[in-house]
Amino acid sequence: SGLLLHEHVNHFSLNTLARVASRSGFKMIDSSASLCSRNYGFVAAFRKSKDRRGTLSKSVDEYAENKKYFMKGVRKLCHFQKKMEDAFYILKQHDKDGLKSILWGANDRILQFLSAGRKLPETSIVVDSNPLKRNFSGDFEVFEPLKASRHIADSDLIMIFTKLNANNILDFLKKRFNKSFKKDRVVILDF
Prior knowledge:
Elements: H1 14-23, E1 26-32, E2 43-48, H2 62-96, E3 100-104, H3 108-113, E4 124-127, E5 142-143, H4 149-154, E6 155-160, H5 166-177, E7 186-188
Parallel strand pairs: 3-4, 3-6, 4-5, 6-7
Antiparallel strand pairs: 1-2
């Protein structure tokens, strides 16, 4: 599926991760599902330890806990797929009405968005402030903000493909180009 992320090569349960880390001399000191950078999975903190026994989670049913995390991820992916389909419909309507749009962020999410037969509409451009992303894709050109200033000024819709930097991008557009978007004309597509 185009939605499966490939940024992690290995996935561990909390207990397995603690055991592997303990073999390398680390002790798990804390873990949390709510502090994870994604809305599924968990984050764990470790401290170098002389004791190689590790600290295991108190969870007795590791299968049930892992299934819970897995199913949360599946639901999140399905929700994200629906959000992308809805966003592409909005983008096509803007194109049909002759309105310009900005898709900000040359990353894996924009590749997912512009896959499965979805093409970048003629009235839309991809913008990223990183000049190294100019040749990010062979399917569309990526513009730096200054080179896209006219299109930015004329755009009615912005789709941002990074939740982490969304507010910084909107602030940058306001300060640098005096450009702001109505709240319903800002779409953030990220997990």
